[in-house]
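debug: dumping io for the single-chain case to check the tokenizer round-trip. Nothing else runs in this session.
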Amino acid sequence: MRVGIGHDTHRLVEGRPLILGGLRIEHPLGLAGHSDADVVCHALADALLGAAALGDIGEHYPDTAPEWRGLDSTRLLAEVVDRVAAEGWKPVNCDVIVHAQAPKLGPHKATIRANLARLLGLPEGAVNVKAKTGEHVGPVGRAEAIECHAVVLIEPLVPGR
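debug: decoded output
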């Protein structure tokens, strides 16, 4: 078994949709980025890549490459799951923390959890989503950014590997 840790942060800006864990959330601001800037999918993808010793999403999906502009991050996460499987690994469980002063994410956690479980091929009971505010401190607390931390456990597809 291996453990991976992922993190991502994006600024909140006008004129962009807010997408977290594949869910579009009604909010006057969205996350700035080359892709759809879904910090949840990005942090989880980085955690998976790290656990499998496959680098990070910047290496596989550089923000300088035009083909990734506007990329749906659920596609990115699904491709990372496939890449990890091609190396002989599968997710066991994950835990994510979304740090956002606004909007309040409590009403959205169940849908985000279900989306992540589907993308990872896991039962919902193996996926946890937590939401924390920034307590009005720093960029998150001033509602200037949203960040996510993710931890994932992977195991070999073939036992004994």
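debug: round-trip ok. The chain has five helices and seven strands.
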